[in-house]
Write a structure and sequence with these properties.
The chain is mainly alpha-helical and about 260 residues long. Helix content is about 55%, strand content about 5%. The chain is built from 14 helices and six strands. The strands form three sheets. It has a two-stranded antiparallel sheet with strand order 1-2.
Length: about 260
């Protein structure tokens, strides 16, 4: 399906053809100034863990798939320095209706390493937020990078290593809490993909729904002893606990010590 967009004479435009079935690659997508401003604003509200994961994806993204974003970056980089300064981003976000205070908040959030300027990779990571570009195999790869000790989950020790001089116990606790909706003290692959795909409120509700489904599908022994037929349990007894899906097999392997 062909897609195109423009932002009324601003010069930061793009058009692309989205194509499916290419694992390991981003699907090209159009970007206008409004698209970019919205993505940057959403990225500014992201959790630290989500930002780090998007940075990993941006580092390893397919070159051709990012052509529209690369062209947008060059259009915003009017000084042709290979990075964006505050004034350059301010021009774009002002045209999208953002006030200077919000522009500053967005700029500081996208400036991941705190250098006072936005690198190409930081810009790409921010623009990937909220887009349909990121594929699940890229999220699995990002998880593997974060799970540096191949334990099958992202631990506090993993995050401490990733954060480096930005590390603090409080920050690590916040990052774990953001993704650990199973309350295990770490983040498995299923939780990580859920974190990257939706809001925490939706993830918690989904976890509660799955829990209720499992309870209905696998009635307790006490109920069976009291005369319950347990037919629902036998009918669904072959369904793996935790639900079906691309991540569930990996999560099960992680819990059993494999990866």
């Amino acid at each position: 399906a062909a897609a195109s967009s423009s932002a009324g004479g601003d010069g930061v435009t793009g058009s692309s053809t989205a194509s499916g079935g290419s694992t390991g690659k981003l699907v090209r997508e159009s970007y206008s100034e409004d698209n970019i401003a919205e993505s940057l604003s959403e990225y500014a509200r992201c959790s630290k863990l989500r930002k780090i994961a998007l940075m990993i994806v941006a580092h390893r993204s397919d070159y051709e798939a990012l052509r529209d974003l690369r062209e947008a970056f060059r259009a915003i980089d009017t000084n042709d320095e290979g990075f964006l300064n505050f004034g350059e981003l301010q021009v774009v976000l002002r045209r999208a209706g953002y006030d200077d205070e919000t522009v500053r908040q967005v700029f500081d959030a996208v400036d991941h390493d705190g250098t006072g300027r936005i690198s190409y990779t930081e810009f790409i990571a921010a623009c990937l937020e909220g887009s349909s570009l990121v594929q699940e195999d890229q999220l699995v790869e990002a998880f593997d990078r974060l799970d540096a000790d191949d334990s099958g989950y992202i631990s506090r020790e993993n995050l401490k290593e990733i954060l480096g001089n930005q590390f603090s116990p409080q920050l690590v606790d916040e990052m774990i809490k953001e993704g650990d909706y199973k309350n295990t003290g770490h983040i498995d692959l299923e939780e990580f993909i859920a974190l990257m795909r939706g809001t925490r409120e939706k993830r918690v509700k989904e976890a509660e729904r799955k829990s209720q489904t499992r309870q209905a599908a696998f009635p307790s022994k006490k109920k069976k002893a009291n005369g319950s037929s347990g037919s629902s349990g036998s009918a669904l007894g072959t369904v793996p606990e935790g639900g079906a899906g691309p991540a569930s097999g990996r999560a099960a392997a992680s819990e059993s010590g494999g990866k």
